[in-house]
Write a structure and sequence with these properties.
The protein is α+β, with helices and mostly antiparallel strands and 180 residues long. It has helices spanning 42-48, 74-86, 102-105, 107-119, 121-126, 153-170; strands at residues 4-9, 15-20, 29-32, 53-59, 62-67, 129-137, 140-147, 176-179. It has a five-stranded antiparallel β-sheet, covered by helices on one side. A three-stranded mixed β-sheet has the order 6-7-8. The relative contact order is 0.17.
Length: 180
Amino acid sequence: MLMVEDVDLTPNPQALKFILNKKLLNFETRQYPDKNSAKNDPFASGIFSLNGVVSVFYMDKFVTIEKSPDTNWGQIQRPFIDFLKSFDPSVIPEETITAPTVDEENELLKKINALLDQKVRPALAGDGGGLQVLGVDGYTVKIRYQGACGSCPSSISGTLMAIEGLLRRDINPSIEVVAA
C-alpha cells in the first residue's frame, strides 16, 4: 500500500512535496500542468480529481502537488492520503526509454545534462521539482522547470541565473539559459 512518509515544504508557497514509501518510477519524471494532460496516467488523473489541484509532478518516491491559491491544504491532504491507500501502483503506465536523438548525441548537450544531473537536479528534487533540457541552439540552452519549480517565482529569476552562471563557469562562457 502506498503511504506518505513525510511532507516537505517547497519554495513555491502553493506546492508541497509528498515523500512516499514506495517507488513510482525508476528513471522518468512525469509533469502534468493540467488535468487534461494527465488523462492517460491513472495516478496523476486520480490526484487531479481532488478539488484544488492545479499541477502534478512525480518521480522516484515523491509527488509534488501544486494547489490553487484559494484552496487550503486541508482540502487536499486527507483525500490524497485516502487516494494513495486505494491506488495500485502497478497501473502506472510503463516508463519508456527512447533511443538517443541527434540533439542528445550533441557533446555540448551531454556536458550540460551531466553537470545539471550532478549539481542542479538533486537540489531541485529536494524542493519538489525538476528540470528538463528541451534543447540547445548554438549556445542557448532552453529549459523547462517541473513540479514545484514550474510556477515558483524564485525559479524564474534566481535559479535561472544560477544555472546559467554554473554552465558558463564550468562549460562555456557564451552559454545563455532561457526558460520555456
